[in-house]
From TrEMBL:
Transmembrane recorded as keyword: yes
The Gram-positive cocci surface proteins LPxTG domain, residue ranges: 418-457
The keyword Signal is assigned to this record: yes
Any matching Pfam family: Gram_pos_anchor
Domain of life the protein comes from: Bacteria
Lineage of the species this protein comes from: Bacteria, Bacillati, Actinomycetota, Coriobacteriia, Eggerthellales
Transmembrane spans: 431-453
Name this polypeptide is given: Gram-positive cocci surface proteins LPxTG domain-containing protein
Keywords: Cell wall, Membrane, Peptidoglycan-anchor, Secreted, Signal, Transmembrane, Transmembrane helix
Amino acid sequence: MLRFTLVQFDAIGADMSFMDSKFSKWGEVETAVLSQSLAKRFARVMLAAVLAASFLPVAAFADTGGDSELKGIKGKTDPIFWYEITSYQNLTKRSSYDWSWEKDGETGAITVTETDDPSRVTVTGTEIGSVILKVSGGDLGDETIRIKIRKRTVGLSSSYGHKIYDGTPLTVTGINEDGEGWISADRDRVTYTMTGSQTNAGESDNTFDVEFPSGSEEYFKEHYAITISYSTLNVAQRPVTLTSASGSKEYDGKPLTNHKVTVGEAARGTGWVDGQGATYSFAGSQKIVGSSENAFECIPNEGTNLDNYQINKTYGTLTVTDRSEKYQITLTPNSKSVTYDGTEKSVSGFETLEFQINGQTFYVSGVEASATGTDAGEYPVTKSGQAVVIDSDGNDVTDQFIVNIDDAKLTIVGVDSDKPASNLPHTGDSAALYAMGICGVAIAAGAGALFTFRKRNNYK
């Protein structure tokens, strides 16, 4: 990137400040200023142009008053502190050249040295400041150029570092120097102390401290434009592959589980770091016919941070198949035996609808059984409905069972007929018998005979 700077003839750029910020390098095009001959000075014109993509001097000339030839002093207007010997040449054709210089404000040591070419001199500066270089002689007026000796640019940056988490700190030493750099007398006086470190997975700045000799901080601040940038320390998560086991069985009413996890074969940069690891909590379980994942969660061991790992899980499959031989359940309806008393009798339900198989509890629903009767005799229990078997979790597992229902009956026992009518039940046909018995006694008293009446099967 190029930066263009336009400077008025007598302007002096401001000092660069001491910075602690991200460093960016600019290609900077230098500008030079020409002061036209005093005898022919009518106007001032500044021209700044880019001659190259790096630090190359550009000559700026003043019009000599209409002449086709542009003449003046050529050279950098901002030599670098302490380092450069900058050459200046007067392009005006003089019969003689008298060079001189004077301070422009407070300026340190400046040296002007003539060369074998009378039109050319070199200027060496040892302090930040500004001077005015002048050339005179011959029949031409004086010409001047303002020279600013500026701060040296020093770019300091740390190096980038990357690794896969291994439980140890990531540090990268060494500082990169850019820009114009320290002068040789100062380079060995500056020390760097690395402070950047990254252990856990993540990123941080690779920081460092710049230390100057005690009491010299102001000197470095005044003479150097220092920029600091930090590269990154990156620790990537360590890959770990975990695979839970599979399993299968016929349905037996119990949950199918498999609490085994295989850790992938360790390779460079993979697997648990030595001394670290995890236990596993399983959620995978298959109780009824079908399949499901053998899911699990990792519980880190002491000293293990799971955030440092990229955990790749593969779940096995838990499969329960239909039974080849179904379980048998037999329901027993309730039976009942009662003595005839002329009223309707009934029986219903089952002895139990709850069963235990392999330590598991099952419930049968959807069926009914009942019988009713009034007269003495046996009445078979009638069964109806379709049996449904439910496990303790409410799952319908009917397909794994065969449900049988035993026979049952309601028995009504007849009354003993040798009992006197007065002892027979006075309801239904026995009530009629009792009434007729009384009549029979009355008739027997007049005719000398006793008649009894009874309904078939209800009396013995």
